[in-house]
Design a protein that fits this description.
Blueprint (H helix, E strand, L loop, with lengths): L1 E5 L5 H11 L9 H5 L3 H11 L14 E6 L2 E10 L6 H12 L2 H12 L13 E8 L8 H15 L4 E7 L3 H9 L3 E7 L7 E8 L1
Parallel strand pairs: 4-5
Antiparallel strand pairs: 1-2, 2-3, 3-4, 5-7, 6-7
Length: 207
């Protein structure tokens, strides 16, 4: 049986793996492993500590996550929040990163992102943001993400947001096609200067 629930503090280890799994499709230009120069396994403890915080409105806190469970076991998750509801999400994420990494590591990470500033897409205040979408490998193909996306849309209606936004790597054609099938439309592309044919695309859906 599939159930969807809000994440709790006890889910932080699972969510740390979800965040890093969401960035391991093979199409990423920027990722946390690239930002911090560490492997996924090396990053898990820091992320588990980092997302155990009570701020909301960004993808680096357990409070923004919905989790899909199979027979009670966490299997998939998605970050869902209203941009600007609790402050600029980028500022909130910086604060969260400072709880998991030292100042020097964070500075180097932001230097890495600055080198790829050509693919940055600003988030629109008042819109529902979807981020860090992933399913554990052993549970794929069971329709979990479909259930999470339905729950995300319901969350958007509760928060009175008229638009959902999600950013996807252009080369991740499977994800782009899946979101298009779900009613999302591409409205913006920011192409990379270092990865030909790739970049960030912004997809939206009105609810």
């Amino acid at each position: 049986m599939i159930t969807v629930r809000k994440a709790e503090k006890t889910d932080c280890h699972f969510l740390a793996r979800i965040i890093l799994l969401a960035e391991s499709t093979g199409f990423e230009i920027t990722s946390y492993t690239g930002m911090f120069g560490k492997t996924t396994e090396e990053l898990v403890p820091s992320f588990e500590k980092m997302i155990d915080n009570d701020t909301d409105g960004h993808p680096l806190t357990y409070k923004s996550y919905l989790i899909a469970c199979v027979d009670g076991i966490p299997a998939s998750a998605i970050s869902v929040y209203k941009e600007g509801e609790f402050g600029d999400s980028n500022h909130l994420m910086t604060g969260a990163l400072m709880t998991g990494f030292d100042r020097k590591s964070v500075a180097l990470a932001f230097g890495f992102l600055k080198n790829h500033g050509d693919i940055t897409i600003q988030k629109t205040p008042g819109t529902l943001q979807i981020d860090c979408v992933a399913t554990m490998p052993e549970y794929r193909g069971k329709g979990l993400l479909k259930e999470l996306m339905k729950a995300a849309e319901q969350r958007g209606k509760e928060l009175n947001t008229g638009e959902i936004q999600i950013q996807v790597w252009k080369k991740n054609e499977g994800a782009v096609a899946a979101y298009e099938k779900a009613g999302y439309k591409i409205v913006k592309e920011m192409m990379s200067a270092v990865d030909e044919g790739n970049g960030k695309i912004l997809m939206i859906k009105n609810i």
